[in-house]
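Per reviewer request, we include the raw input and output of the structure prediction for the construct analysed in the revised manuscript.
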Amino acid sequence: MSRLGRQRLNAFLDMLAAERGAARNTLDAYERDIADYLEFLAGKAPGDATADEIRGWLADLAARGLKASSAARRLSAVRQFHRFLYTEGLAGSDPSAAISGPRLGRPLPKVVTVGDVDRLLEAARAACEREGITKPVRLKALRMRCLVEMLYATGLRVSELIALPLSAATTRERFLIVRGKGDKERLVPLNDAARQAARDWLEAMKDAGQGDGRWLFPSEGESGHLTRQVFARDLKSLAGAAGLSAAALSPHVLRHAFASHLLQNGADLRVVQELLGHADIATTQIYTHVLDERLKSMVRDLHPLSDGE
């Protein structure tokens, strides 16, 4: 780093400390990021840097194996540094203004396989039929079976699932009307297994002197419905009983499984968008990796010139 580069960096750090009250750890992070950039400039005055040199530095970061998120953080520091130089009259322009940041890939949702879900559902059903269990234990097992069957059949948000009304267990329709985000209503499918699980759960509640309240899944203690924390905890226990990784399974993962498995079997992305209650198709497009794999399989299996590999 040139002497002038060090002077400009010190002036920038002084500004952060005096005007923004930046903490020592923050100042150290800015110093490391910008010092790395100035070293790349190889002695060139920072006020004379060009947009191409910033792009070259970003390419160098990528070649060093830096994650896109880390590179984006370093670029943010350099942008602020160049903006400071320009506003203070220490540079005639801000070359970072023309730079696009590294593309941050949206993390793919965790998804379990159809086989994993089958094992989970089978474990939930088996728990209800285990010999010698007490009535309270069986009641809890029936609730868990109903929760899992309903979630995988409908793709509901966990907040929507635990707040289902009692009437969801008695509907003769093959769908539910759900009120989701933004107070918007939508239709979600309801298969025979989910309907039967709901009827069995309702019958067991009535036998236990319950089932006359407002909620399909009433709270165990105070008034209200089951909490998401209790459901998530019990689901992890069920995952362990099914021989699955408890850490990899959550109510949200089952919602993602609902969507991914529909797409794998040919469902249209916009149909899945409606079922999930996404206001924007862009939110549903996190599943396009599933579509990509399906398209590859179709070309491989159906194209007349494909070699089948």
